[in-house]
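Bumping my old thread because nobody answered last time. Still need a sequence for this structure:
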């Protein structure tokens, strides 16, 4: 990944400005981008979008200061390619290769380092935001645009688009040693999560990454990751790194072995190869099909395009109708609940939805010198450990599928348990509940300052309202 430099970045921003000026005054402002990691209905755009084609790279790296200046449309895959040669990674690397830096900040992201580093926006030092007024402002935690800096995370483009972000980096070893702990009781797993988050140690060994999978009510795993320089630092693990980009499948290894060893690169993208476990829906996990499925196509963005194609042509819907199966509801969500409520949520989820596996990823607001910073658009409680539960699939529910009965029930249960859910997928909240959960009042005030002519779609209209 070549470093583009500030001169080329400035030219790209000028092209972005020019594309904004070319829009009719009454035209909505949106990005002209072809890729997405969103799972909610979107209106087909009729008007041209903003030119962001030149905002996809790394501007500069400071290996000594452990920072990077990155363009907003740069993917984490490209960023990691630039930082790993220096033994550095972003503090949080979301699990899918094509998630962009700007997308992870305005739309949230999470991964196994979130139990100690929070969410991706918590390691942003400053950012340039292209606002609905057509201006680029530099926002930091304590300058005149601090309100935009704090409110931007989880605003989904309703406040503008990040063109440049300066982020912190941290060291990582050449290899990652894994230990898989099995639990037959969700309460014991939750207790162990709380202990590790507090101490960052398990049985005398440091824990650098922490996530898990619930395969069944009595079969749950936590995966403890430790950065190491060589295999000799991880006795008991294989002498050579495992490869889960070929015939072997990562999530199945949790049930098959107690320890493992991956390269740092393969660890970061361990979930992308099979889109967690969702590649099975396309036959990509069948041993014969997998042998002939090109490795370059074993990627989340390829599977995403296949899902998009099916939604457009309705093949699965027609096959279900022909077979007499009830209509499917898409249940694609990531939710956060306090760790002590996790067993209660999983029990409810088994009864109400019945979907497994479920990804488990602990997180906590990052502690700074002055304590945790507050982020009003996604207000997690300081000092509280949460666990993200991710589940992605479809459930046969019948003719009411389009009304989202299961998704609505999940929203209500998560709220009851004191949690939140990410908004990359479908949401059904009424306006009052939405504003209460995501501080809609503050969003409106900040939007009024940076988008006075209301050129940008409001967050509620973008993520909830049907168009």
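Sorry it took so long. Here it is:
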């Amino acid at each position: 990944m070549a470093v583009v430099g500030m001169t080329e970045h400035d030219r790209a921003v000028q092209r972005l400005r020019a594309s904004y000026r070319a829009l009719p005054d009454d035209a909505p402002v949106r990005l002209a981008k072809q890729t997405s990691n969103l799972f909610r209905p979107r209106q087909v755009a009729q008007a041209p979008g903003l030119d962001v084609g030149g905002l996809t790279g790394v501007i500069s790296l400071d290996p000594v200061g452990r920072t990077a200046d990155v363009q907003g449309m740069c993917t984490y895959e490209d960023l990691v390619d630039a930082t790993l040669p220096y033994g550095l990674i972003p503090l949080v690397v979301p699990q899918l290769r094509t998630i962009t830096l700007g997308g992870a900040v305005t739309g949230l992201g999470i991964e196994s380092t979130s139990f100690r580093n929070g969410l991706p926006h918590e390691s942003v030092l400053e950012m340039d935001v292209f606002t609905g007024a057509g201006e680029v402002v530099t926002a930091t935690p304590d300058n005149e645009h601090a309100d935009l800096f704090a409110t931007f995370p989880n605003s989904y483009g309703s406040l503008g688009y990040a063109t440049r972000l300066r982020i912190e980096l941290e060291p990582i070893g050449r290899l990652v040693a894994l230990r898989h702990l099995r639990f037959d009781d969700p309460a014991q797993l939750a207790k162990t999560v709380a202990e590790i988050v507090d101490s960052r140690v398990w049985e005398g060994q440091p824990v650098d990454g922490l996530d898990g999978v619930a395969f069944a009510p009595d079969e749950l795993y936590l995966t403890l990751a430790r950065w190491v320089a060589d295999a000799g630092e991880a006795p008991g693990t294989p002498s050579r790194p495992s490869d889960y980009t070929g015939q072997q499948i990562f999530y199945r290894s949790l049930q098959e072995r107690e320890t493992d060893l991956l390269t740092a690169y393969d660890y970061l993208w361990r979930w992308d190869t099979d889109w967690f476990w969702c590649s099975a829906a396309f036959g990509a996990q069948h041993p014969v099909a997998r042998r002939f499925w090109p490795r370059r196509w074993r990627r989340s963005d390829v599977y995403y395009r296949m899902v998009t194609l099916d939604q457009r042509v309705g093949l699965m819907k027609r096959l279900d109708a022909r077979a007499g199966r009830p209509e499917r509801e898409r249940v694609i969500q990531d939710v956060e609940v306090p760790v002590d409520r996790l067993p209660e949520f999983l029990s409810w989820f088994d009864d109400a939805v019945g979907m497994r596996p479920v990804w488990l990823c602990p997180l906590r607001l990052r502690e700074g010198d002055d304590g945790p910073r507050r982020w009003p658009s996604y207000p997690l409680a300081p000092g509280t450990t949460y666990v993200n539960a991710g589940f992605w699939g479809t459930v046969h529910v019948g003719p009411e599928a389009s009304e989202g009965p299961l998704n609505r029930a999940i929203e209500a249960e998560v709220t009851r348990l004191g949690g939140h859910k990410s908004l990359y997928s479908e949401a059904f909240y009424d306006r009052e509940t939405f504003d209460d959960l995501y501080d809609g009042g503050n969003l409106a005030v900040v939007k009024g300052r940076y988008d006075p002519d209301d050129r940008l779609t409001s967050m509620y209209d973008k993520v909830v309202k049907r168009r």
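The radius of gyration is 22 Å. Let me know if any region looks off to you.
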